[in-house]
Amino acid sequence: MNTTLTLNRGDAGRRAASLGRLGIWTLITSGLLIIFVPLLLTVYLSLFDEKLILFPPPGYTLSWYAAILPNFGGAIVVSLELALSSVVGSLLLGVPAGIALSRHRFRGVSVISTLLLAPLTIPGIALGLAIFLFLVLIETSTSWPLTGSLLGLILSHLVITLPWVVRLSVASLINHDRAAEEAATSLGARPLTVIWRVTLPAMRSGIVAAGLFAFIFSFGNLEMALFLVAPGVTTLPVAILEYLEYHIDPLVASVAVAQMVLVGGLMLILDRFVRIGKVVR
Q: Selecting from 1.10.3720.10, 2.30.42.10, 3.90.550.10, 3.10.580.10, what CATH number does the domain 66-280 have?
């Protein structure tokens, strides 16, 4: 009797474990499908040989990729200038802030950390409107032409890229042993020398990951740019949105694929040399 009960319980346990593994693999497969099916459909759509999107298409072509620069070249240049400037500015401000938050404990550190990360919790539309009104207030008070300028866009994008830099800078130092820094200090190295020779090399992966995330978020930002662009200073996401108001063709899909290839290739190359995956896990 006891042997029979034990066997039944063992079979029930194995069935439960099998169902659990099946459920986990179902969730994983569903997640992968949700992520990759739209990407594959975008790649497929970018090859359609018709201005009107018809399925199945009459043929396939790569000519839409050749049309990216003639249609969006100016916007791409503006977005690249904006993203690179945002990366430089956010690294110059965010890396020291991350070191300070990670290495020093002072009064109000939790408040400062919360304020630095706060823009991540605010909807982009609300943040863009608030920044636009703030820039208008500054412009009316000082006559500085910030609204509709590249400088205004850069300053506004620092608000959304700086939190990522601070967050990843802090994360890169969490598991770093301070013994090397303390040894350098005990040997007479000045604080700035310790940071330059010991701390920053230890943060290399985090700094690269922070710069990459800042570039991606700045380059692809739409919500804030809607309030801050002007004729001649239009970013790529806004230019794509304006294009879609009058055209429905595979050109936008080809732009999306080109961006995916660029960002994906950049991530693979950087991860090969600095292992950014260790920081963002």
A: 1.10.3720.10
